[in-house]
Amino acid sequence: MTFPNFHLGRWLLYLGLSLSVVLSGCKKLIDFFDPETQFDPVHPSPIPGYQFVWGDEFSGDSIDEQSWQFRDWETAWLGPVPTMGRKENVSVNDGKMRIAMNIESYVDPETNKSYEVTAGGIQTKQAFKFGYYEASVKLSATKGWHEAFWTFWYNDIDPTTYFPGWETAVRTEIDVFEHLADYDTKTFTYGMYEHTGGWSNAAMTSVHRDMYFGETDLTSQFNTWGFEYTPEYLNYFFNDSLIKTVDVRDVPHREFYIWLSAIATRMPDGDGEMQVDYLRCFEPDTMSTAYQDRRAYFLQVLEDMKGEEQSEGIDLWIQAEDFVDKGGWTVANDDNIVAIKGHPNTTPVNEGVRYARTGIIVEEAGTYKLWVRGKDFKNNLPGSRFFNVFVNGGYSLQKYGTHGSDDLYDWQDGGLVYLEEGVNTIEIYDASLYYASCDKILLTTDHDFQPTGFGGETNVEHVSVNPPVEPTSLWVEAEDFVELGGWIVANDTGNEVIKGHVDRVIPEDETLRYAKTKIAIEEAGTYRLWVRGKDFKNNWPGTRHFEVLIDGVPATQRFGTHAADELFAWENGGEFVIESGDVIIEIYDSSCYYATCDKILLTNDLAYVPEGIGETQNVVHKPLLP
Does the pLDDT value for residue 397 go beyond 70? Predict the structure, then answer.
C-alpha cells in the first residue's frame, strides 16, 4: 500500500551534520535527528531538512496500479538477448515487491514474437524532482541479470506521452545502483547521464560514473540505497553512508520518474528474483534551519573539491578536452569534471589515433614542473588504465592514471621540463588502450607547489601543431558497398539506400549484420565522420539505429537516432585520425529493426556540416581482399 503525506509537527532540534569515515572507506552521517522529532513519526527522514511525502511499503497483496506503471515491453538495446517485461513477473507478498527474472519460452500475444527470457519492473506514475529518495532492496545472486534502482525522464515508451520539446532537450538519468550481469555480489555501479537528441540513449554522456566495492553482500540481505537531489549537489548513500557528492549546478534539472526494474543483458545462468522492501520519498523543507545548514555544508564541500588554484610562480593550467587534435580520444563528463578518454580495450589500426596533440603559447621560457591529473580505480584493476605525456617530444617516465588513491582523479608528478618562449607541443599518448582518462595538465615554475582537487581554470591559448591540409571530402554511397551482408538495397524517398533486418530478428550469422567496403585515403590526417540515416520523429524515434566503424573503430554516435523533422538527416560521428592508404568502412545493424543508411562522408574540413542529400559519390569501392 502507499502512504499519504503526514504533517504532524516541526523540527524541534537541529543537531548538526558531521561526517566520519567508516571501515568501508565511506563517509557516514552519524548525527541523525531523534525519530520522534521528525515530520512523520512512521517514516522519519534519514537526513535533516526533509519530510516524508510518499512511499510504498508493499504491504498488500498486489501492486498499487494507481501509483505504479509496469515495465511491460521489450528491452533489447543493452545486450544480445532481448528481454520481455511482463506484468505477471511483478508480484507483492510477505511485505515485499518481487520481480521474477525467468529463463522461459514466451510468445508475445500482440506481436507473436518469441522470447527466451522475461523479467519486468515498475515505475512511478507520479513525477518527482528535488528531494531524498530511498529504497531497501535485495538482489539476485544469479549472473546474467541487470537490476537497477534509477530515475528517468519518462515512465512509458509511448512518445506521445513525452514532454514538449523532448527531442532537443537535455534529459537526465540518475542510476542509484545498477548491478550488472557479471558483477560479484558486493559490487554495484552508480552515476548520472545526460541524454540528448532522439530517443533513450541515442546520444548519452556521463555526468559522472563510479563503482562501489564493499564487504556487504547485496544478495543475502536487504540493503538501503538513497540519493539526495538538490539544485546544487547530488549525494549518493548506501546503508546510511554517504559515498559520493556530485556537483550538478550545470546540469539541467527536470522532473523524473522512479524505476525499479530488471532485465537480461546476456543469457543468464539461471532464474533470479529482485526483492524490494520499500520505497520512500522525502521533500526538502527549504526554509528550515536544518536544510539551510545542510546546504551550506555541502556547498562548501563543492568549493573544497576545487583545491589549490595558484602557486607562487607561473602556472599554465591546460584542460585536456581543449587539445586541438584529440586523435582517438573522446571528450566526456566524468566525476564532476570534463575529461578525455582513450580506447576501450581495443587496438586501433592506425597508431596515430593514440595521440591527442596540441600547441600552447608560452610567454616566458624556463624550467617548469609537470603535473598530470588522471583517473585510476583503487579497487578495480588499479594502474591498468595508464597513459603517457610528451612535452616538445620529450618523454616523461611517469605513467599517469596509476596513482591508486582514494579519489578517482588525482595528480601525479611528471618531473621537470623546459619550455621555449612561443609555441610548445604537448601530446597525450594512450599507452594502455584500456579506458585511460586524462583531465588536466599543470606546468608551473613553482617546483615546490603540489596541486590538489580540480586545480585552476585553463589559462593557455591552444594552437594547432599539425601542418595545414587542403580540404578533402570523401562521399560514400551505402548501396555501393562491396559486401552488403544482410542489408538490402531499396529506394526510399527517391533515393537509393540500404536497409537492415526487420522486427528485431537477430540473424544467427553475426556477419550478416555488417555491410563492408574499402576506399583509399590519399591524405593522412584527422577526418570527421558524417552519416545520413533515417529516423521517425513521432514513431518510435531512435529505435532503428545502426553503427559505423572506420578501420574497426566504432563511432561514439549511434545513427538513425536524430529525431529530426526530416526522415533523413546527417549525424556527426566524431573525429578519426586516419593514415594514408586503404580504409575499411563497416555499417553494423545494431537494432535489427528497420535501420536505414543512405550516405557517409569523411572530411578533414572539421568545421563543415553537410546538408540535404550531400554531394555525388567521389570514391572507388575496392574489394576487401587484396
Answer: yes
Residue 31 placed within a domain:
no
Residue 602, strand partner residues: 474, 529
How are strands ordered across the β-sheet holding 581-588? 514-521, 581-588, 547-550, 553-554
* The model's pTM: 0.70
Structure-block grid coordinates of residue 348: 586501433
> CA nearest 554: which of 562, 545, 543, 563?
545
3-state secondary structure of 457: coil
Domain that holds residue 248: 51-298
What CATH number has the domain bearing residue 518? 2.60.120.260
Residues 488 and 441 in one domain: no
The model's pLDDT over 401-433, given as tens digits with 9 standing for 90+, comes to 999 998 899 999 999 999 999 999 999 999 999
What nine digits make up the cell of 333? 563528463
Give a yes or no: residue 66 inside a domain.
yes
pLDDT at 520 over 70: yes
Structural contact between residues 479 and 616, judged by C-beta atoms closer than 8 angstroms:
no
Is residue 621 one of the residues assigned to a domain?
A: no
CB-based contact 288:11 (threshold 8 Å)? yes
Whole-angstrom distance, CA of residue 540 vs CA of residue 461? 44
Q: How confident is the model at residue 200 (pLDDT cuts 50, 70, 90)?
A: very low
Q: Is 513 exposed, middle or buried (0-12, 13-18, 19+ CB in 10 A)?
A: buried
Which H/E stretch holds residue 547?
Answer: strand 547-550
Q: What is the pLDDT of residues 577-614, one digit of tens each?
A: 888 899 999 999 999 999 999 999 999 998 899 999 99
Residue 255 lies in a domain: yes
